[in-house]
From TrEMBL, chain B:
Keywords: Cell membrane, Membrane, Transmembrane, Transmembrane helix, Transport. It is a multi-pass membrane protein. This is Unannotated protein. Its main location: membrane. GO terms for cellular component: plasma membrane. It is found in: Cell membrane. PANTHER family: INNER MEMBRANE PROTEIN YGAZ (PTHR34979:SF1). GO terms for biological process: L-valine transmembrane transport. The chain crosses the membrane at residues 20-41, 61-86, 137-159, 165-184, 196-227. It comes from freshwater metagenome. Signal peptide: none annotated. Belongs to the AzlC family.
Length: 99, 233
């Protein structure tokens, strides 16, 4: 099942890239399509942040992940690069797991 | 569109240097992806397959972000999330097509490396003409491909060797990675409104809707805002 997911999502994402290169320009150049495509990552990434921070199956919980993400926000506000953000969150959560 | 002007050697070297250093920095994130994939039950080969075949960071994180894929509904959630996040690559392709002007297998190869970074570097060379844009695209795209895949394998093998993901805080690394990808996109009022609407959608739906549905539903926030919002970015 994991392999199927890997291969189907890869094929689909390749087709999206290829379609952009092969399609007549008029199909995708509408400002409305552009706006939606630009906002799509914002919506999905926001949703994923919340689901991954607070979600466990069907319940919302507050645990070490939330602390890690809170630290990530602070580090982002300090303009740290991406790897530092991820490591800071991981270290925070790891320390809380040790307590 | 700029004409075919000769690209001077010093500009070519500068573009190569910029592209490669960006590629290396972005490639480092591959370590985080490899580790996240491992904590979601993917083998190092499956993690590498995603990096080599899907090759789009946010979409890849969406696949492993659903957790351990134990049912078809989770698989569908993972695939849908990846595709929705991949839609912007179609727009990049549209932007790059008249610059690259390729057919056949070369177009397919170019499509695979059409991502945020390669498109970004290409477009920022616009003042230097088409050859500079093409050089920026290929150097950056191929560079990211090389480093991203290498570091994915490194991260996956490393996390596998470490054992329990929560012990090393990898449970918090995944949402932090999403946040890091989101952050630079939160510029202006509309993106903030869309982000908040999406977040609230998940908080409301998560306890009730089937797993994965809340995240997919949040895409509606982008559709609604993009549909009616003309200016105000």
């Amino acid at each position: 099942m994991i392999w199927a997911t890997v291969l189907i999502s890869s094929a689909g994402c390749f087709l999206l890239k290829y379609a952009g290169m092969a399609m007549p320009e008029a199909w995708l150049s509408s400002p409305r399509v552009q706006r939606i495509a630009n906002l799509m990552p914002v919506a999905l990434l926001s949703a994923l942040v919340i689901a991954q921070t607070f979600g466990v199956g069907h319940t919302l919980t507050l645990d070490a992940r939330a602390a890690g993400v809170a630290v990530a926000i602070v580090v982002l506000l300090l303009r740290a690069p991406f790897p530092v953000v991820v490591v800071a969150a991981a270290v925070t959560s790891a320390l809380l797991h040790r307590l | 569109m700029n004409q075919e002007v000769e690209l001077p050697d010093n500009e070519r070297r500068r573009i190569t240097r910029d592209g490669v250093s960006l590629a290396f920095t972005v490639g480092l994130y591959g370590t985080a992806f490899g580790a996240a994939a491992s904590s979601s039950g993917l083998s190092p080969w499956q993690a590498l397959a995603l990096s080599a075949l899907l090759f789009s960071g946010a979409s890849q994180f969406a696949v492993v972000g659903v957790g351990v894929i134990t049912s078809w509904s989770l698989a569908v959630t993972a695939i849908t999330g990846a595709l929705l996040l991949g839609t912007r690559n179609a727009l990049y392709g549209l932007r790059m097509a008249p610059i690259l002007q390729l057919r056949g297998i070369k177009r397919a190869v170019a499509a695979q490396i059409t991502i945020d970074e390669s498109t970004g570097v290409a477009i920022s060379q616009e003042h230097l003409g088409l050859p500079a844009m093409r050089h920026g695209f290929w150097v950056t795209g191929l560079g990211v491909y090389l480093f991203w895949n290498s570091f994915t394998l490194l991260g996956a093998l490393g996390a596998d060797a470490l054992g329990d993901p929560a012990q090393f805080g990898l449970d918090a690394a995944v949402p932090a990675a999403f946040l890091g990808l989101l952050w630079p996109r939160l510029k202006g009022r509309t993106p903030w409104a869309v982000g908040m609407a999406a977040a609230i959608t998940v908080l409301i739906l998560l306890p009730h809707a089937p797993v994965g549905v809340p995240v997919i539903t949040s895409a509606l926030a982008a559709v609604v805002a993009g549909w009616k919002n003309g200016g105000g970015k």
